[in-house]
Amino acid sequence: MSPDARHPAPAEPSDLVDPGVPVEVASRPAHATTGDRWRRAAVYRVHTASFADADGDGVGDLAGLTSHIPYLRDLGVDAVRLDAGAGAPEEIGALAAALHAVQLGLILEEADAGEDETARDWSAHDVDALCRDGRLLVLRRGEGAAEPAAPEPAAIDVDLTAEEFEAAGLRRRIEQALEAARVAGGAPTWVLSRPGAVRHATRFAFLPGMGAGPDAVEQWLREGGDIEEVPVALGLARARAASLFVLALPGGVGLLQGEELGLQEAGGARSPQPPWSGGLSVEAESFDPGSTLTMYRAALAYRAYLAGEEPLDWVDTGRDDVLHVRRGPWNAVLHTGVAPYPMPDGRVLLASRVLPDPARIPADTAVWILDT
After folding, report:
1. Residue 157: its pLDDT value, please?
2. 47 DSSP 8-state letter
3. φ, ψ for residue 353 (rounded to 5)?
4. Which whole number is the average pLDDT over 300-318?
5. What is the mean pLDDT of residues 200-224?
6. Does position 88 have pLDDT exceeding 90, yes or no?
7. Which helix (H) or strand (E) holds 45?
8. Which InterPro entries match (predicted)?
9. Distance (Å, rounded) from C-alpha 131 to C-alpha 138?
10. Rounded to 10 degrees, what is the CA torsion of 275, 279, 285, 286?
11. Domain coverage including residue 109
12. Is residue 10 one of the residues assigned to a domain?
C-alpha cells in the first residue's frame, strides 16, 4: 500500500512526547500570506527521479510526486523544493496548483543566476519562490499576487553538512549564520542534509573523534565502504538530536527526502533515497510512537505554533558539550557529550529519544521544554 493510500492514525503518546500533548495537532494555523511565511518555512527537498514513479519506467516523475502530496501535508512541511528542470513548465504549474490546494508551496531550484524574465515566467505558472545560489527569492505573496521581477531574498540556506556533532562548533556556526542573515536582510534556512552530501544520520556515526571528517566519509563511501559497518544506532540518535535542535532555531529548515525516516546513506549513491524504500518505511514508522517519523511529525506540528519572532537567547549550561537556547517560553537543549545533564525546569514537550531518567538528559539527545 502506498503511504498516501490512507491517513495514518495519530500515534499513541510515548516516552518521546509529553503525554499531555497530542502527537498530531488536529488543526494547524493558516499559513501566512506574506513573505514572512518563507522566513520560517519547513521545506521538503525532493530529488524527483528517486522519489516516486507513477508510470512504472523505473524513474520518478512529477506525477509520482503529486500522488504523494497527502503524505507531505501530513508530515507538516510548508513547501516542496525541487529542480526547475524536473518537468515542463505546464507540468510544474499543475504540481503547484495541487500543492496550493492543500496549503503547501512550491520552490524551484535554479542552477544558475537566471534572468528576471525567467522569474516572471515561473510566477505565471504559480511557482511561489525560486532558490538561486542558496538564496530564496519570493515570487508570490499570496493568491494571485506576484512579487516584483527582482525580489529581495527572504531566506538564505545555511549549509550544516560539514559540521560535526559537537556543541562548540555548532554554536559558532549558528551564531555566524544568524549574523550573516541579519546583515543580508533575510532569514536562515538550516540544512543538515542535502543532495550530494553524506546524510547526517550516516556522518554523525563517525563524528567527532573518530578521525573522519565529512570529506573522509564521502571518500570512504565512494571507495566502496560497507554501510553495514556504520554504527547505525549512534548515527541515528545523533541525527535525531541535531534535527530536533535545528527545528527550534529561528528561521526556516530544509529537509531532505527520507531524513524524516532516519535513512542512512545508500553506499556510494549520491541521489537521495525515496522515503518509502528499504527497511525504514512510512507505513511501519507511522504507527510506531518511538519512530523518527513520529518525532518529525510532532516537531513540525508543534513548531507551527511555537515558532515566532522571539529572538534566540543562549542559556549558560556550564558545559562545553551542551547547548541550550530559549525563544520566549520555548527551550531547546542539545547534549553532544557523555555525562548526563540535569534536566532544566519546565515541561518536557518532546525528546529525540526515550529518557531513562526524566531528571537527566542522556548523551546524544535533544529535548524541547516549555516554561511553566
Report:
1. 96
2. -
3. -155, 170
4. 89
5. 68
6. yes
7. strand 42-45
8. GH (IPR017853), GH13_cat_dom (IPR006047)
9. 9
10. 60
11. 36-304
12. no
CA distance 331 to 217: 33
Alpha-carbon distance of 91 to 104, in angstroms, equals 17
What's 217's DSSP letter? H
pLDDT in tens, 312-326: 999 999 999 999 999
Query: Cβ(368)–Cβ(302) under 8 Å?
Result: yes
- The CATH number given to whatever domain includes residue 40 is 3.20.20.80
Confidence (pLDDT) at 174: 98
C-alpha cell at position 292: 523518527
* The three grid cell numbers given for residue 83, joined into one nine-digit string: 529542480
Q: Please tell me the distance from the alpha carbon of residue 19 to that of residue 345, in angstroms, as a whole number.
A: 17
Task: Please state at what angle helix 292-306 crosses helix 232-246, rounded to 10 degrees.
Answer: 10
Q: HSE of 181 in the Cβ direction (CA atoms, 13 Å)?
A: 25
- The structural domain count of the chain equals 1
Q: Do 163 and 170 touch, CB atoms closer than 8 A? A: yes
Quick check: is 370 in a domain? Answer: no
* Burial call 274-306: b when 16+ CB within 10 Å, e when fewer: bbbeeebebeebbeebebbbbbbbbbbbbbbeb
Give which of 129, 86, 77 is closest to 104, Cα–Cα.
Answer: 77
Average pLDDT, the chain: 83
% of residues, the chain, pLDDT over 90: 58
Residue 125: Cβ within 10 Å count:
19
- Residue 234 counted as domain residue: yes
Residue 128 placed within a domain: yes
Amino acid at 285: E
> Three-class SS of residue 1?
coil
